[in-house]
TrEMBL record:
Classification via Pfam families: Acyltransferase, GPAT_C
Top-level taxon: Bacteria
Topological type in the membrane: Peripheral membrane protein
UniProt key word Metal-binding: no
Keywords in alphabetical order: Acyltransferase, Cell membrane, Lipid biosynthesis, Lipid metabolism, Membrane, Phospholipid biosynthesis, Phospholipid metabolism, Transferase
GO molecular function: glycerol-3-phosphate O-acyltransferase activity
Domain Phospholipid/glycerol acyltransferase: 161-295
E.C. designation(s): 2.3.1.15
Coiled-coil ranges per UniProt: none
Major localisation: membrane
Protein name, per record: Glycerol-3-phosphate acyltransferase
Species of the source: Litchfieldella anticariensis (strain DSM 16096 / CECT 5854 / CIP 108499 / LMG 22089 / FP35) (Halomonas anticariensis)
InterPro entries with a match to the protein in the record: GPAT/DHAPAT, GPAT/DHAPAT_C, GPAT/DHAPAT_LPLAT, GPAT_PlsB, Plipid/glycerol_acylTrfase
Length: 681
């Protein structure tokens, strides 16, 4: 493998030339040692030789598969195989009969679809892109930090890997492939939107492993059959794959609800090749969650315009020119964190033990239930590997202030508090923390242009304007889930100076499961256990004290109360949105509002609240956030849908009543006044 970058057999001269040409990019791997004494095991020499040769062949094949991936078929051969498959032939016959066209004509259309979809991965192009991207990253970023890749290497040779990153930027497509290639792993075939198949750029992406898909093809029977078969052939041959379960880039910065499409096609493909009885020899499919965190994202200004209601601009080659024009701007660092791999067979065996017996059904009932579970579990595992950076931390604090301004010393104390909370009670099993101290982080965020440092006679202030505050909300939302319980606990003590742990538990219990679903928080332990640890950590930091069987705010300590206020401010917008939605729903009899009407009325109330309170935060009244909240309430059993109408019962009424006591009377009254406004949808 020292002198070969493909599976093709080559002669000695060609290998020698390859060494000369590629001498600076040799990939050398050392495997686990094999003890000759154990291999011989008192066997005849001929048998021992065959055993050693067999073990070495298996070892080298696995290593080659890890680095080069499975053998790449010629693109034309692959497309011909897809079009000639039984599933696609059946679709061709059905479409031809339905449209009254000849089979040959529909077959040509299927071949065009295959040509439109299929990647054309090329090893020379991968090497070229590696060199190109290295220069690009050096111009854009101060560094790329990678965490957790080592334990994925052990899986690459023996399992089919499906990488599922969060989707925050177009850079995501390139960054993960670059990181994997640099670490000696085969870059995946990447599912990309057809909008990226632009002149020049599309061809380069296709040769780098991208295959293109239309936004929707549920009404195109033939296209769906071709795409499904193409995806199946990639997976069944063991090619690594990458796609974004969110569907599109997150404009709000938070994790979006997973879309079922690609997950469903992956499960159907896996079911086709899975044996009826589990066996260790079967090649397993493993999902690899990936969190990608930016200190400054290229598309931030475009996201802000879209949240304000502007139409999404169609991508074009001119966008590349615009990106090149930004190369002189500082973009800080970027982090790539690998989360806990999800073994698909084990997941299915746990949730639907009989799935193997129903694998041949065209519309297997078990898939309807398991696909949302799989998507939510992957989203939680992605969030579980979040990368905290300086911009995230400063945004969390600064946006919790009324006017986006804070004294530098208070900001430093609050940043240190957030850092300590994550070190003491990590919000995820694989999170990474920024290097340096609070003063360093503030300097970094100032250098990136998000904040202004202003000298004042009584001490330095940190502030930001309305436009940058809106941008910072995107970075806050990236990691809000890590501090959700800390913020919720602190918020409870805004309106309650003293609470017993049981009282606090009862106060938070209705909101916490909803918050976990909305923010995709992995909550492995019961709330009472997690809450006890959080209260003890608050006490260690001087935020609360335990006295006479109850927890209370320390009396007379203004700084501590300020810190509690800022910490509670992290979840206040989320709680306010929930309160507005529940109040909107409860003002009408059960079954009155449709799901869309409820989301739109709630969005209008949130927009009105933002305008009246002087908030420049378009994401606060983003319609997709309210749609996700309704979905979370449905999943928790607070409401249900019948004939496109939202119904609710005592569970929602009691939960809303208990959750409302979190708010102080003045804020609660203000929110109620907002929902009494006339003229809604």
């Amino acid at each position: 493998m020292l002198a070969a970058d493909s599976w093709q057999f080559t002669g000695s001269l060609r290998r020698a030339l390859s060494v000369i040409v590629n001498g600076k990019s040799v990939e050398l791997h050392f495997g686990a040692p094999l003890h000759l004494k154990d291999l011989l095991d008192e066997r005849p020499s001929a048998m021992a030789n065959r055993k050693v040769a067999r073990l070495l062949r298996v070892h080298f094949r696995r290593m080659r598969t890890r680095v080069l991936g499975p053998d790449l078929s010629h693109r034309r051969t692959l497309i011909d195989g897809v079009v000639g498959s039984p599933a696609v032939r059946q679709a061709i016959d059905e479409v031809a009969a339905a449209q009254g066209r000849s089979t040959a004509r529909i077959k040509k259309r299927a071949w065009r679809y295959g040509h439109e979809i299929a990647s054309n991965m090329s090893y020379p192009v991968l090497r070229f892109m590696d060199s190109l991207l290295e220069r690009l990253w050096n111009r854009l970023y101060e560094g790329v930090d990678v965490h957790g890749l080592e334990h994925i290497k052990a899986l690459a040779g023996e399992h089919t890997l499906v990488y599922v990153p969060c989707h925050r930027s177009h850079i995501d497509y390139l960054l993960l492939s670059y990181v994997l290639y640099r670490d000696g792993l085969m870059p995946p075939h990447i599912a990309a939107g057809r909008n990226l198949d632009m002149p020049l750029i599309g061809s380069l992406l296709r040769r780098g492993g991208a295959f293109f898909m239309r936004r929707s093809f549920k009404d195109n029977r033939l296209y769906g059959a071709v795409f499904n078969e193409y995806l199946h052939r990639l997976l069944s041959r063991g090619h690594p794959l990458e796609y974004f379960i969110e569907g599109g880039r997150s404009r709000s910065g938070r994790m979006l609800s997973p879309r079922p499409g690609m997950l469903a096609m992956t499960l159907r493909s896996h079911a086709r090749t899975s044996p009826a009885i589990a066996t260790d020899r079967a090649r397993g499919l493993v999902f690899v969650p990936v969190y990608i965190g930016y200190e400054k994202v290229l598309e931030s200004n475009a996201y802000l315009k879209e949240l304000k209601g502007h139409q999404k601009r169609k991508e074009s080659p001119l966008d590349l020119v615009r990106v090149l024009g930004q190369l002189r701007q500082p973009f800080g660092r970027v982090a790539v964190n690998i989360g806990d791999p999800l073994y698909l067979d084990a997941f299915l065996d746990h949730h639907t033990p009989q799935w193997r017996l129903q694998r041949d059904l065209p519309r297997s009932p078990w898939m309807t239930d398991v696909i949302p579970r799989l998507g939510n579990e992957l989203a939680r595992r992605i969030n579980d590997a979040a990368a905290l950076n300086a911009v995230n931390l400063v945004a969390l604090v600064l946006l919790s202030t009324p006017h986006h301004a804070i004294e530098t010393q208070l900001l430093i104390r609050q940043l240190n508090l957030l850092d300590t909370l994550q070190r003491r009670l990590p919000g995820g099993a694989h999170i990474s923390l920024p290097k340096g101290d609070a003063e360093t982080w503030i300097a970094q965020v100032a250098d990136l242009g998000f904040i202004e440092r202003r000298d004042q006679a009584l001490g330095e202030l940190i502030l930001t304007d309305a436009a940058h505050a809106s941008l910072l909300s995107w970075y806050r939302n990236n990691v809000l889930h890590l501090f959700a319980l800390a913020g919720l606990t602190a918020f409870a003590f805004r309106n309650n100076a003293r609470l017993r742990q049981a009282e606090l538990h009862d106060l938070l219990a209705p909101s916490w499961p909803i918050l976990c679903r909305e923010l995709f928080i992995a909550s492995p332990t019961a709330l009472d256990t997690t809450l006890r640890d959080m209260l003890e950590t608050f006490a260690e930091q001087g935020l609360l004290e335990f006295k006479d069987g109850a927890w209370q705010r320390p009396s007379g300590l203004l700084e501590v109360n300020e810190q509690l206020q800022l910490l509670g401010g992290l979840v206040q917008p989320t709680l306010e949105r929930g309160f507005l939605l529940l109040t909107t729903l409860l003002r009408k009899p059960s079954g009155t509002l449709s799901q869309d009407a409820l989301a739109e009325q709630s969005r209008q109330f949130a927009e009105r609240l933002a305008l009246l309170s002087g908030r420049e935060a378009p994401e606060f009244f983003d319609a997709r956030v309210f749609a996700g909240l309704i979905e979370s309430l449905h999943d928790e059993g607070w409401l249900w849908l019948e004939q496109d109408r939202v119904h609710y019962g005592s569970t929602l009424e009691q939960g809303a009543r208990r959750a409302s006591t979190l708010f102080d009377p003045a804020l609660r009254q203000r929110l109620l006044q907002i929902t009494e406004t006339q003229g809604s949808v």
